[in-house]
Design brief:
heterodimer, A: mainly alpha, B: 227 residues, alpha/beta, 6-stranded mixed β-sheet, 5-stranded antiparallel β-sheet
């Protein structure tokens, strides 16, 4: 039962790569957006908030199709990126990472925003009176104090990216070795005669990875709490 | 040092409208709670922007509403000791004390560090986290942190306000030493006439947002009468 074939391994490794890249690229952006939503008042704030949460409520197929229209080879953004930066998303693993990043973004931003909101602004004021410029206040006070939320957001986003299916398969299809993640591999195997055993193996792998991610997030959160209170 | 404050600011149900000019080593702002003292020093610190008026130190303008001047808090070099210490919980005492120097990219000054830690008697606390300090220790560290950022003026908002009588007696001598030895002018906010008498060299009485008297100890109400 537990001879994992090379195509299955390829799907597992690809999933990990896609989710890791999606999380690492989305995190700085998530921190910036989380800070904006927590700390600034500006015109269109609720619009931005809604736009970020859209992938959570839209059917994933719709998000995937919209990605195909904008980031596809003939899409406005996709064509420009391909011509000017040589960056192609359509039917590539990078496209899977983009789809996963967008789908997991609301889950990434939310804990970050909440933890930044929870940082005592009076500490930020104290830092400013000691001569810290706004960016220094952010890097030395706000971000370290919001670290547990950032890590929680990263783990949640990573877990969501790992399991993303609908938007990814719509945008970049299901190409073994290029865009076939664990989810799309399982989907393909279920539709194949005698694919049950292989599908089950991948199910076990994804349960193990998800459990590990949750345990890791718990551990990070506890360490961050220790950093904040006491020695 | 010459501190000039001439501001007005609408705050909810009343308006702070204050004028004073002080050259004192310790300028006391004395008044009941809710009189607008904290709003006044928040304006000096730059945390609050006056609706109208001028704030200057030694001729340098910090706020001037006609020309829309408002120097950012972090550029004012004005230290602030808050009633609630506000130490950074994720940093130990040593890093809290060193914070201002790092942010202002000042070179390390071992002599100043020794002088401040000795003056405030906090040398033995350096490796502790703020969570493990007593109220009095926390306030002394906050004082040291403000001093080590090398401000040109030090604001203190009821620094003894959250301490019990015994702790107050513990900190007061440090404040008197600070006044006599540190050479940094201070603005000291309190509703306690006894504290004012011991510390301030010039006093502004604040009532309902206005300065109703300015001068030496004689402007304070007679001993044992609350403001």
């Amino acid at each position: 039962m537990f001879d994992i074939s090379s195509t299955e391994w390829t799907a597992v490794l690809l999933s990990l790569r896609v989710a890791t890249v999606a999380t690492l690229v989305a995190t700085p952006l998530g921190i910036a957006v989380g800070w904006l939503l927590a700390r600034r008042e500006f015109w269109g704030k609720s619009l931005l908030d809604a736009a970020i949460h859209l992938p959570l409520v839209l059917p994933p197929v719709v998000t995937g199709y919209l990605l195909l229209l904008t980031f596809g080879r003939r899409g406005v953004v996709g064509a420009w990126l391909a011509d000017h930066l040589g960056l192609v998303f359509a039917f590539r693993w990078t496209g899977a990472a983009l789809a996963c990043g967008i789908m997991s973004f609301p889950l990434l931003v939310r804990p970050i925003r909440l933890s930044i909101e929870a940082v005592d602004r009076r500490l930020e004021q104290a830092a400013a009176t000691l001569g810290a410029a706004p960016w220094q206040v952010f890097l030395t006070v706000t971000l370290p104090l919001a670290l547990s939320g950032v890590l929680a957001g990263m783990v949640l986003g990573f877990a969501k990216a790992l399991g993303e299916f609908g938007a990814t398969i719509t945008f970049v299809s299901n190409i073994p070795g290029e865009t076939q993640t664990i989810s799309s591999a399982i989907y393909a195997l279920i539709q194949t005669p005698d694919g049950d055993a292989a599908a089950l193996r991948l199910v076990v792998v994804s349960v193990v990875i998800s459990m590990a991610a949750l345990i890791a997030s718990e551990w990070f959160a506890r360490r961050a709490l220790l950093r904040l209170h006491g020695n | 040092m010459m501190l000039r404050v001439d501001v007005s600011k609408r705050l909810g149900e009343f308006t702070v409208e204050a004028y004073f000019a002080s050259e004192g080593r310790v300028t006391g702002l004395f008044g009941a709670s809710g009189a607008g003292k904290t709003s006044l020093i928040n304006m000096i610190a730059g945390l609050l922007r006056p609706d109208r008026g001028v704030i200057s130190i030694d001729g340098e303008t910090l706020d001037d509403t006609p020309t829309r001047t408002h120097l950012a808090v972090y550029r004012r070099r004005i230290g602030y000791v808050f009633q609630d210490a506000r130490l950074f919980p994720h940093l130990d005492v040593r890093k809290n004390l060193d914070y201002g120097r790092r942010m202002n990219r000042l070179t390390e000054d071992g002599a100043l560090w020794r002088r401040v830690t000795e003056l405030l008697d906090i040398g033995h606390l350096l490796d502790r986290r703020p969570g493990k300090l007593s109220g009095g220790e926390r306030q002394r560290v906050a004082l040291g942190r403000a001093l080590l950022s090398q401000p040109r003026l030090l604001l203190m908002d009821e620094p003894l306000g959250s301490l019990d009588e015994e702790r107050k007696e513990e900190i007061l001598p440090y404040l008197i030493r600070l006044r006599d030895e540190a050479g940094i002018p201070m603005v000291y906010v309190s509703h306690d006439a006894a504290e004012m008498r011991k510390l301030a060299t010039q006093i502004a009485i604040i009532q309902r947002g206005r300065v109703t008297a300015f001068g030496g100890n004689e402007v304070l109400p007679a001993a044992h009468t609350p403001a």
